[in-house]
């Protein structure tokens, strides 16, 4: 019996009794774009060790000079927008028309180029004979593993919260009271009312619950995630 395994497989869409090409003109070819190396624990340790060695000099540059590098990075990201969009499309299949990441990343780097000035501490004289200070210091070098997942369809609170993810949830209703009640009950870091992902505001916190991440990003929130608060107690003499 002749085998059909070697015959070409139809890859078009079967619509209305006919094989048809997709309207967008974009199809999956299974062509290998690139062979990407996968890092292991030792590779991560090598990167952390190199960053640790460079960290003191970077820390001691001061806010102005560090900001200059961040502004330069912002500029380079914008200049590379088309290349980054192509890479994103090749690696994820995302449409180039939906690529906004470069402009967003550039804007964030430009903002935080001057954000170091907001990392302010406090001082008090509330303890007799002491000048008490709190200062903000960077954590130092960290290895970041960033997962990306799309939000699950959520139709009811029980089903919505019965998930290990919790990045973005959505509520569609004309009843504002109902929207607030549902938003409070949903186990998600972001709840959109009559809108859904990737809707977000630049000055609100971006982040999730459960395995969708810890900490928060955003113009007013990101910096605190990279800082530790230290207390310094200075013994003073009385007049």
TrEMBL record:
Gene3D superfamilies, per the entry: Aldehyde Dehydrogenase, Chain A, domain 1, Aldehyde Dehydrogenase, Chain A, domain 2
Record carries keyword Repeat: no
Top EC class of this enzyme: oxidoreductase
Keywords assigned: Coiled coil
Segments forming domain Aldehyde dehydrogenase: 27-156
InterPro entries: Ald_DH/histidinol_DH, Ald_DH_C, Ald_DH_N, Aldehyde_DH_dom
EC number: 1.2.1.3
Coiled-coil intervals: 34-90
Catalytic activity, as annotated: an aldehyde + NAD(+) + H2O = a carboxylate + NADH + 2 H(+)
Entry's family note: Belongs to the aldehyde dehydrogenase family.
Protein name as it appears in the record: aldehyde dehydrogenase (NAD(+))
Organism: Penicillium roqueforti (strain FM164)
């Amino acid at each position: 019996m002749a085998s059909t395994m070697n015959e070409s497989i139809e890859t078009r869409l079967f619509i209305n009794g006919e094989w048809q090409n997709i309207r967008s003109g974009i199809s999956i070819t299974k062509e290998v774009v690139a062979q990407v190396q996968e890092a292991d624990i030792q590779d991560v340790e090598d990167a952390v060790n190199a960053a640790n060695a460079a960290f003191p000099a970077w820390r001691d540059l001061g806010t102005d000079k560090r900001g200059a590098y961040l502004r330069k990075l912002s500029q380079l990201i914008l200049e590379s927008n088309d290349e980054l969009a192509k890479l994103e499309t090749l690696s994820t299949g995302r449409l180039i028309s939906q690529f906004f990441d470069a402009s967003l990343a550039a804007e964030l780097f430009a903002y935080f180029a001057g954000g170091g000035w907001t990392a302010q501490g406090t001082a008090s004289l509330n303890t007799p004979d002491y000048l008490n200070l709190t200062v903000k210091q960077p954590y130092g070098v960290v290895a970041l593993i960033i997962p990306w997942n799309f939000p699950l369809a959520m139709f009811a609170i029980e089903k919505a919260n019965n998930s290990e993810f919790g990045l973005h949830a959505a509520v569609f209703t004309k009843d504002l009271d109902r929207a607030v009640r549902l938003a409070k009950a949903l186990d998600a870091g972001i709840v959109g009312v009559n809108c859904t992902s990737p809707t977000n505001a630049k000055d609100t916190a971006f982040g999730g619950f459960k395995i969708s991440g810890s900490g928060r990003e955003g113009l007013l929130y990101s910096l605190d995630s990279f800082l530790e608060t230290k207390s310094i107690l200075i013994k003073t003499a009385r007049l």
